[in-house]
Specification:
The protein is of the alpha+beta class and about 190 residues long. The chain has five helices and eight strands. Helix content is about 20%, strand content about 30%. The chain starts with a strand and ends in a 23-residue tail after the last helix.
Length: about 190
């Protein structure tokens, strides 16, 4: 049976921090807008900052839907599934905030992550302030074996300078604005504060 919790601590925190993948879900306010669901991985890119705050690193890609949605309305859900061990699904419903590279808080937030995770193509830190924390059974989630992180993303962007990455961002149709026309990543790409 599912339960709700006042905070992320103990067993829940250990579960969240041990998962190699999680998912983010966001949506615009417009009823005809596109709901976005994104897988997130890469070791060391998620941090539980306190009992009600999480953060993850947002890297470059072909779109910036999550950034656009949290900028517009803040609504975000994070979800983790146990693909091994006891069947469990944990969800954190909350308010998201994109902290971009030129924000004075950016450098301090980066300090919460594994230094190896701070790599090329880092666009923002997404803060999530939990409003509802819950778990459920996960009985239908399949067993799957984790073999390791894919290195293609890091390898691709590690070949680019920051200037080349900025050019890449400006050349993508749905990075500066979402597929629904909402402001997403500020362009030109802000320089890093730290």
């Amino acid at each position: 049976m599912g339960k709700t919790y006042e905070r992320i601590d103990g067993r829940l925190r250990a579960f969240i921090e041990s998962q190699p993948v999680f998912f983010t879900a966001t949506a615009p306010l417009a009823g005809d807008g596109h709901v976005n669901l994104s897988p997130k991985g890469r070791a060391g890119t998620l941090a539980v900052l306190d009992e009600l705050t999480l953060a993850y690193l947002d890297f470059g890609g072909s779109t910036a839907e999550t950034l656009a949605h949290v900028r517009e309305n803040g609504r975000i859900t994070l979800m983790w599934c146990a693909f091994d061990g006891p069947p469990t699904v944990v969800r954190v419903h909350g308010r998201g905030e994109a902290v971009f590279r030129d924000d004075p808080r950016f450098a301090e937030l980066i300090g919460h992550f594994d230094p190896a995770a701070d790599g090329s193509a880092l666009r923002a830190v997404v803060l999530v302030h939990a409003e509802r924390v819950s778990d459920s059974c996960g009985f239908a989630v399949p067993f799957m074996d984790y073999r390791g992180d894919r290195e293609l993303h890091a390898q691709y962007f590690d070949r680019k300078t920051d200037e080349e990455f900025a050019t890449y961002c400006e050349g993508k149709e749905y990075v500066g604005t979402s597929i629904d026309g909402l402001p997403a990543l500020p362009l030109p790409l802000p320089p890093r504060t730290g």
